[in-house]
Amino acid sequence: MLAGFFQFEPVFGVVSSNLDTIEEVADRESFDLLVLPELCTTGYQFVSQKEVRDLSEPVPGGPSTDRLIKIANKSNAHIVAGLAEKDGKDIFNTAVMVNGSGMVSKYRKIHLFHEETLWFTPGSELPDVVDIGSARVGMIICFDWFFPELTRILTIAGADIVVQPANLILPYCQKAMQTRSIENRIYTITSNRTGTEERGGKKPLTFTGGSQVTDVKGNVLISASANDEKLQVVEIDPEQARDKSITPYNSLMDSRRPDIYADLLGKK
Asked: Which of 40, 51, 86, 109 is flagged as catalytic?
């Protein structure tokens, strides 16, 4: 299958223009699975709760989800994107997976980073592993990478690929995702954004780009620079993620010791 990312710089607050950019680029490429950045329709550096609420929308049923479904339909593909989701009084930092028929799955970010804690309600449910036909896919969002338990849980649930919409400003994640691939023998797709946001007199946030796809041995198959606006795809074989053999005597899943881990976790 062809899987990859679209790395770009969203214009803060101009949702329709950001969706136009996504559609224009997606129409020029072929892919089976495409991952877009976190909060890719709104931008990231909010300055007030009103601003967050005004830019958020229902998921599904909001204009961004509806538009992404149309783009996925034209491409006959699955698309993963980060959105600001409104649900009653709560606003969530959410990743959605859509195809041409509608929304397939959504995940509300569990581990909020920095000022996200001012604007968003943390998610309270684990992401699903979704069978899209050619692969089984699980979603995390940006700072979730810091907590390897989540990627391991998705692997145990059968994920071949873990996708990561991101707005990364710390320099460590891309290397860490290589490790997530090695320790779980899965593919990962990180779609980061580019550019700088400096709003409301706050300290500027410079995003690190470096979107990438890693294979089951942690090799970087494709990657972008810190500043490229680029859609890149690569052919991957999800079947490779189903072979958890490390040596003739060690299988990743069979070598685990949950009998011991459970006791340690119980002690926190």
From this structure: 109
Query: Which domains are delineated in the chain?
Result: 2-267 (3.60.110.10)
**pLDDT digits 0-9 by tens, 22-46:** 999 999 999 999 999 999 999 999 9
- Asked about 40 being catalytic, the answer comes back as no
Per-residue model confidence as pLDDT tens digits over 203-215: 999 999 999 999 9
Specify whether the CB–CB gap between 203 and 216 falls below 8 A: no
19: helix, strand or coil: helix
pLDDT class of 263 with cuts at 50, 70, 90: confident
Amino acid making up residue 145 = W
* Distance between CA atoms of residues 120 and 113, nearest Å: 10
User: How far out from the chain centre does Cα 81 lie?
Assistant: 7
Per-residue pLDDT at 259: 85
pLDDT in tens, 74-92: 999 999 999 999 999 999 9
Looking up tokens 């007199």, which residue turns up?
A: 201
Phi, psi of 18 (to 5 degrees): -65, -40
45 three-state secondary structure: coil
Ordered alpha helix ranges (H), 41-144: 49-55, 63-75, 116-119
Question: Which of 51, 85, 142, 230 does the annotation list as catalytic?
Answer: 142
Does 244 participate in catalysis according to the annotation? Answer: no
